[in-house]
Amino acid sequence: MAKSRKAKRVYICPTCKGNGYVKVACIYEKEDMVHQCWDCESQGELYDYGDGEFIDLEGEEMSIH
Fold first, then answer.
1. E-assigned strands of the chain?
2. CA–CA dist 38, 64 (Å, integer)
3. Buried b / exposed e across 2-18, counting CB within 10 Å, b at 16+?
């Protein structure tokens, strides 16, 4: 059985603003394309587990003191 961690804080995803999807402008078509959010994996929320690590938007791990 997989261990589940309790989230210390829950944030609304700033990329999709809680919707779970984003509209991306396409230069080849007149309509915007709809894609699943890549940051929150279409959940609309980001979770902070309080383990002292934070991954910034560039994908680099940072240590929280």
1. 9-12, 21-24, 33-36, 45-48, 53-55, 61-63
2. 24
3. eeeeeeeeeeebebbee
* Amino acid letter, residue 37: C
* Cβ contacts of 45 within 8 Å, gap of 6 or more: 10, 11, 12, 13, 18
Per-residue pLDDT band for 14 (boundaries 50, 70, 90) equals very high
- Predicted TM-score (pTM) of this structure: 0.59
Q: What is the pLDDT of residues 31-64, one digit of tens each?
A: 899 999 998 889 998 888 776 655 555 555 544 4
Q: Alpha carbon of 3 to those of 9, 18, 49: distances in Å? A: 18, 26, 13
Tokens of 12: 């609304």
